[in-house]
Structures are given as structure tokens and as C-alpha cells.
């Protein structure tokens, strides 16, 4: 049986046959389906991975790369929206579910429209566009890689992604009392050649009635963001529970731990259908250095978007109870 060579350490990370490992902390044989397939398409790669066995190759070739799982490690957040060298083929496990934009989208569909403001296209959304206010909380970088399912799952280069979420106290800029003139935690990024966008923000709080989440809309291009009806996908990212529990021990998130203990992914009125199977990102980092989240977003333009109507609870309407139909954390 052939022995698989050890990875070569480079300044960019460990490599095998000149390619960066998709999973830097794992052995070559544990790099996943995409890496295995890229290796096996060459004779040298096929011989080098002979130890995997025929059965393992068949499984690797047929298995999709899962995106609905989370993991944590000690590494801090990193942005990945630049047009650097691809780290490997990515596939979507399915089309991202259509979800409500909620009552606080700020896209002009129900009042305030941040998408008409100059400066909304930005990577760092921790401050208001005019720099007058800054959101406080544990740093979070979140990345989306958008794939065009109508064209075989290729990177959806050029699409514009508008993302927004609540503060550490569970309030929404442009809507919550005292924040009507604030525009932080909202921004637009345009996907690069790899379909990637990246936002620098803070970890959202948890208000009563909803699982911690980040809203986003995908538009065909940046010129389309002026019309909310042009969105080709509207969905939400669900934050993993272990990270939420760690973050909400911070005093700036007063009330979030209690609210989190009173809800669940399975019971959430948005994620409850499948416990956010396609909406949980891969998450790395910690409360000291901040977190980095990455989610693969499959968008199928052959299907008509069905989001837009608000559900009966949580983000379904204020009902006099605060952001998203739930009581925001005190503090």
C-alpha cells in the first residue's frame, strides 16, 4: 500500500501537491470530497491516495459538502471576500430557504430605506454610514459564498448581498426607539469572482421570541438594490448555540442568555422546519478574539422567490413588544 506523503508547510499553510489543504488541521486523507476529487483527477493523485480504497473514493465523489454544521476553534475572525486564490471547489447542499425579511429590513419595503444612501456598499458595518455611532459587542466577521444553482452551482459573481441584524441589546437601527437616525449593522457587498462577500460586524444579541440570526437579501447586481422586489433570494443565517452561550456571558449582552434559554432552533418560527440545516455557518474563534462565520448560499433563479411575508411571531411584527415581535434584552 502506498504511503501518502506528509503535507508541505508553507507561509500560507500546509499544502499537498502544491494545493492548500481545505482543512489545515486534518490529515490529507481527511480533507473531504472536494479535495479528494481534485487529487484523484491526476495519475499522481490517484496513486498517492490509493490508501483511501475504491469505496472511500466513491463515497467522496458522491457526497455533497455539508454547509449546515458549525465548529469552533481558537482562531480569530478573518475576512475572505478578496479575489485571492480559490481554496477548493464548494458545492451547496441545496437552495437556501426563503425566509421573511422581518419587520425591520430597512430596504424601503416598509418605510426606511438604507439602500438609497451613499456609502451603503461597505465591508465594515459596525458604524453608522456617517460615522456618528458605533455598535458595541464581540467582533464577528461573517462571509457568504453565493452559488448559482441555475447554472450548475458555479460562483455567483457580481450579485449584491445586503445583510442586517440586531444590536447586542436586540434592537434594530432605523427602527428601535432612539436608533431611528442610526444606520449601523447594515451594509451591502458585491460578490467577487468566487461568489464571496464578507462583513465585519458584532455578534447579534438574542431577543425574546427568536433564535439569534442575521438577515440577508441577494440581488442580481448592485444597481438592483434600489428596488427590494428585485431580490432573488431572502434568507437568514442562524448562529450556533455554543458560540451564543459563550458570547451572552458578556455583560453587554444582558438578557440574551435568558432569552436563549427560552427558545430553540427546532422551536423557532423561522428555522423550526428543519432546525436551520442549510443556514448554520461554519464558525471559528472565541469571545476573546472574536468569531468568523462562513455560510454557503445556494441561489436558484429558476424558482420564484417566496419570502417577504412576516410570520406570526418572532420577526413577525412588533405587537408592541419590541424588535421582531419579541421583547428585546434589558440593559
TrEMBL record:
Residues 111-209 form the Intradiol ring-cleavage dioxygenases domain. InterPro entries: Intradiol_dOase_C, Intradiol_dOase_core, TAT_signal. Pfam families: Dioxygenase_C (PF00775). The chain crosses the membrane at residues 46-66. The keyword Transmembrane applies. Residues 311-331 have a biased composition (Gly residues). Keywords: Dioxygenase, Membrane, Oxidoreductase, Transmembrane, Transmembrane helix. Coiled coil: none annotated. Residues 68-94, 301-310 have a biased composition (Low complexity). Gene3D superfamilies: Aromatic compound dioxygenase. One of its GO terms (molecular function) is oxidoreductase activity, acting on single donors with incorporation of molecular oxygen, incorporation of two atoms of oxygen. The keyword Transmembrane applies. Residues 68-115, 300-331 are annotated as: Disordered. This is Dioxygenase. It comes from Microbacterium foliorum. The lineage of its organism: Bacteria, Bacillati, Actinomycetota, Actinomycetes, Micrococcales.
Amino acid at each position: 500500500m502506498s504511503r501518502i506523503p506528509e503535507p508541505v508547510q508553507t507561509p500560507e499553510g500546509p499544502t499537498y501537491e502544491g494545493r492548500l489543504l481545505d482543512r489545515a488541521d486534518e490529515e490529507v486523507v481527511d480533507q473531504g470530497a472536494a479535495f479528494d476529487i481534485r487529487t484523484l483527477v491526476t495519475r499522481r493523485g490517484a496513486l498517492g491516495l490509493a490508501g483511501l480504497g475504491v469505496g472511500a473514493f466513491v463515497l467522496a465523489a458522491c457526497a455533497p459538502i455539508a454547509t449546515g454544521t458549525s465548529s469552533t476553534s481558537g482562531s480569530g475572525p478573518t475576512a475572505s471576500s478578496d479575489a485571492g486564490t480559490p481554496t477548493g471547489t464548494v458545492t451547496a447542499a441545496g437552495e437556501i430557504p426563503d425566509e421573511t425579511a422581518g419587520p425591520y429590513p430597512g430596504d424601503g419595503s416598509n418605510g426606511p430605506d438604507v439602500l438609497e444612501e451613499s456609502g451603503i456598499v461597505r465591508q465594515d458595518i459596525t458604524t453608522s454610514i456617517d460615522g456618528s455611532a458605533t455598535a458595541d459587542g464581540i467582533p464577528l466577521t461573517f462571509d457568504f459564498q453565493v452559488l448559482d444553482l441555475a447554472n450548475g452551482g458555479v460562483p455567483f459573481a457580481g450579485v449584491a448581498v445586503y445583510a442586517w441584524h440586531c444590536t447586542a441589546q436586540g434592537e434594530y437601527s432605523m427602527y428601535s426607539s432612539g436608533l431611528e437616525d442610526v444606520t449601523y449593522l447594515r451594509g451591502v457587498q458585491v460578490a467577487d469572482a468566487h461568489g464571496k462577500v464578507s462583513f465585519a460586524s458584532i455578534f447579534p444579541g438574542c431577543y425574546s421570541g427568536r433564535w439569534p440570526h442575521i438577515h440577508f437579501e441577494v440581488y442580481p447586481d448592485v444597481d438592483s438594490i434600489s428596488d427590494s422586489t428585485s431580490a432573488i433570494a431572502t434568507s437568514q443565517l442562524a448562529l450556533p448555540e455554543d458560540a451564543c452561550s459563550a458570547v451572552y456571558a458578556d455583560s453587554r449582552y444582558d438578557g440574551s442568555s435568558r432569552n436563549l434559554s427560552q427558545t430553540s432552533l427546532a422551536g423557532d418560527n423561522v428555522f423550526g422546519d428543519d432546525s436551520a440545516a442549510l443556514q448554520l455557518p461554519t464558525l471559528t474563534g472565541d469571545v476573546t478574539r472574536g468569531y468568523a462565520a462562513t455560510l454557503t448560499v445556494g441561489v436558484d433563479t429558476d424558482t420564484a422567490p417566496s419570502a417577504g411575508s412576516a410570520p406570526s411571531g418572532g420577526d413577525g411584527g412588533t405587537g408592541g413588544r419590541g424588535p421582531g415581535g419579541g421583547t428585546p434584552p434589558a440593559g
